[in-house]
Recover the amino acids of this structure.
């Protein structure tokens, strides 16, 4: 028995005191009841706790309680040099770390004024990685959503296909999920030799699988019945709540920051921005959100193919190419406030920086996470529905709690 | 599409003592705390500006020397594709500001976060509780003079 063990004193009321319920049981009407959903439950996709006020099976109100995965990103960022913040950025949205890194690195480069110097090959590798990661992230979204809706097989199929992407990313960066691959001013390393060929093989492998997945999950009658006409999010409400990404597009607005802001090399690439059309029910319902993600995977595959063409043709690897050539030795932006945003798989990821011009450490770095804003609309669209439909809505939001709580 | 001088003019009509900050990106207007809701309502409703999305709301503690706090609102107009930042400077001792939840509902959680981290009070917010930290946590962690408590429920905070 270890002698230096710590005995924490747990009290029965600990949870109630640290995160008290908003509703007091004494003030409820006689038919109402409070049900606590989470924080440890597979259908809440992480550690989200929902306090649900129900009347029979009908939901009267939902109060999300956050913070179970709060890891002080902003406090850490205020104590670390700009380049050392990147691993913490990875851990925000841990299923799409490349996209977050890309946005963060882009922001600091623009603050330093070196955004124009970055070689085209570096930019194409970044976009290639980001889009591969976007496919992986949408795979997770669809797979776990299917599992929530009672379809277990698609999850295994998707995880099998996602594994190929993770192996490619591991080959390039050395890590499966948290990469620290995109650096400020460059990349950790150039693509490994043979990466382009393996990636092309993966693309030709994945195309028929996507069709398979579409028929198995999204066109499945049970899935459609569970998700169509459920959790309809009107467009004006979505914008007012700051909802972005596939959720906003499913409500019918063709708004994608890759097109709107045209950052990196996205203006040189051809892809469409799919929107929800209410094919199986109402525009902006849960099925539309899943469908938009499915269509976006196809678009990402297109982008990956174009990037591979460029990386093997116009910007092919040379002996002289050094991806760290423009990595600044000293990262000290001038005094300014800067807000950068970019499109991650879940929506608009933004970073607000305040640099004081005197140190290598950001004076303030706020992460505006898309999942945080997307989740905040949940109480609004889940009043008067059934408990089972609440699970359908949570899954369709596709939030990652690491990003909500930061 | 409104450019920055036009936006500044629109804000000036509502709140005469506005100053501009053109060094930051997006360019910012600095307004007194009292006129925040009036300016935001105008920016949101005016058909020439139509800032329909509040992208980000950031609280900042400027430290003991400056003795001020700031709240920065990053606005974005989807139809015009224009961004604008609105800054409000508050005293550090008693930071109180009007809530903008009635204009943009997304401000609800963002304001709760600013309250959680900085102790900024948002007047008119329906449900101003801590959001990320436990309800019984002491102090506001992102203030520059913050020192964490030694024990939280008999668990040593320092690791």
């Amino acid at each position: 028995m270890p002698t230096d063990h710590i005995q924490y004193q747990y009290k029965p009321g600990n949870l109630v005191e640290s995160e008290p319920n908003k509703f007091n049981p004494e003030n409820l009407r006689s038919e109402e009841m409070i049900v606590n959903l989470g924080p440890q439950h597979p259908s809440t996709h992480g550690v989200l706790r929902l306090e649900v006020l129900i009347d029979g099976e009908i939901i009267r109100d939902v109060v999300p309680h956050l913070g179970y995965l709060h890891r002080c990103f902003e406090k850490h960022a205020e104590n670390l040099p700009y380049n050392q913040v990147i691993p913490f950025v990875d851990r925000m949205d841990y299923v799409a770390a490349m996209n977050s890194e890309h946005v963060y690195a882009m922001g600091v480069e623009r603050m330093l004024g070196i955004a124009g110097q970055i070689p085209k090959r570096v930019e194409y590798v970044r976009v290639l990685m980001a889009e591969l990661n976007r496919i992986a992230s949408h795979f997770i979204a669809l797979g776990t959503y299917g599992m929530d809706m009672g379809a277990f097989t698609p999850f295994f199929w998707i995880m099998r296909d996602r594994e190929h992407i993770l192996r490619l990313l591991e080959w390039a960066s050395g890590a499966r999920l948290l990469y620290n691959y995109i650096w400020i001013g460059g990349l950790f390393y150039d693509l490994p030799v043979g990466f382009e060929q393996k990636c092309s093989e993966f693309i030709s492998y994945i195309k028929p699988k996507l069709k398979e997945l579409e028929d198995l999950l999204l066109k499945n009658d049970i899935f459609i019945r569970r998700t169509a006409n459920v959790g309809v999010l009107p467009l004006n409400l979505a914008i007012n709540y700051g909802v972005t990404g596939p959720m906003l597009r499913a409500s019918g607005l063709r708004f994608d920051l890759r097109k709107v802001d045209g950052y990196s090399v996205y203006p040189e690439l051809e892809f469409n921005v799919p929107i929800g059309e209410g094919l199986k029910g109402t525009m902006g319902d849960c099925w539309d959100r899943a469908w938009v993600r499915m269509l976006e995977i196809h678009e990402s595959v297109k982008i990956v193919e174009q990037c591979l063409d460029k990386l093997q043709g116009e910007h092919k690897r040379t002996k002289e190419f050094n991806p760290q050539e423009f990595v600044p030795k000293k990262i000290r932006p001038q005094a300014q406030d800067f807000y950068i945003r970019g499109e991650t798989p879940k929506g608009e990821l933004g970073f607000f920086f305040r640099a004081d011009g005197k140190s290598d450490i950001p004076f303030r770095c706020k992460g505006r996470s898309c999942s945080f804003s997307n989740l905040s609309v949940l109480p609004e669209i889940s009043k008067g529905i059934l408990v089972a439909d609440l699970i359908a809505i949570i899954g369709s939001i596709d939030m990652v709690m690491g990003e909500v709580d930061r | 599409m409104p450019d920055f001088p036009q936006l500044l003019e629109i804000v000036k009509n509502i709140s005469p003592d506005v100053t501009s900050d053109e060094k930051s990106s997006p360019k910012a207007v600095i307004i007194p705390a009292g006129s925040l809701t009036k300016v935001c309502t105008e920016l949101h409703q005016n058909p020439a500006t139509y800032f329909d999305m509040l992208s980000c709301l950031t609280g900042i503690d400027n430290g003991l020397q400056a003795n001020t706090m700031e709240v920065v609102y990053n606005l974005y107009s989807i139809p015009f594709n224009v961004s604008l930042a609105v800054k409000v400077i508050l005293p550090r001792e008693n930071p109180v500001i009007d809530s903008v939840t009635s204009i943009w509902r997304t401000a609800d959680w963002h304001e709760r976060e600013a309250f959680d981290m900085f102790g900024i009070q948002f007047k008119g917010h329906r449900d101003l509780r801590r959001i990320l930290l436990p309800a019984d946590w002491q102090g506001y962690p992102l203030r520059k003079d913050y020192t964490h408590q030694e024990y939280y429920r008999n668990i040593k905070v320092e690791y």
